[in-house]
Amino acid sequence: MKFFILLNIICLIAHSSGLSELKEFGNPLKLFNTCISDHQCEHNEFCDHNGINPIGSCTEGKKLGGSCFFDRYCQSKNCYLMKCVSRKPVLDGPCTEDNHSECLPEQYCSGRDDAYKCRDRKCYGFCGKDAHCLTNNCRFFRCERPSAGCDKEEKN
């Protein structure tokens, strides 16, 4: 109980005094390198609890091939047969910033802030990166047209 009272006092002081270094912590528990649930940690971490203690610490997730019991123990957030495996790509599914391998081959990862999702690659038209094009070739801001596989009427 005393811990949470102290935590509230620190948050009030940080909020009222304008201490920018303390305001960076959206999660006040990060001041003490602690957490209660996974959402208080970075995307590649999980909240590791010792026994039944409700307060844990953010721990880096296991890499591919690492041992796990739950999805949350893996950086990929996918545990299969007690091993961390890569995420199975899903059409228009979520992805990690610019990690195109988490998308189907005909899609790329795009988004803003924390809202990244897989989007369809273009046959032709405007592009900003090679990954935006089916041919993986963006030349002078235009997708290089593939030799086959695109409908002539398609306009991206």
What does this structure look like?
There is one protein chain. The protein has a domain at 2-60. Helices cover 13% and strands 18% of the residues. The protein is built from two helices and eight strands; from the N terminus they run ααββββββββ. The protein has helices at residues 2-17, 20-23; strands spanning 45-48, 57-60, 79-80, 83-84, 107-112, 115-120, 138-139, 142-143. The strands form four sheets. Strands 1-2 form a two-stranded antiparallel sheet. A two-stranded antiparallel sheet has the order 3-4. Strands 5-6 form a two-stranded antiparallel ribbon. The N and C termini lie far apart (58 Å). Mean pLDDT is 78; it is low at 14-24.
Distinctive features:
156 residues, alpha+beta, two-stranded antiparallel sheet, 2 helices, 13% helix, elongated, signal
- Computed CA radius of gyration, to the nearest angstrom: 22 Å
The proportion of residues in beta strands is: 15-25%
Tell me the span between the first and last alpha carbons. Answer: 58 Å
Number of helices: 2
SSE string, helices as H and strands as E: HHEEEEEEEE
Coarse structural class:
alpha+beta
Report a brief summary of the structure.
Keywords: Signal. This protein is α+β, with helices and mostly antiparallel strands and 156 residues long.
Reconstruct the topology from this structure.
Layout: H1 2-17, H2 20-23, E1 45-48, E2 57-60, E3 79-80, E4 83-84, E5 107-112, E6 115-120, E7 138-139, E8 142-143
Antiparallel strand pairs: 1-2, 3-4, 5-6, 7-8
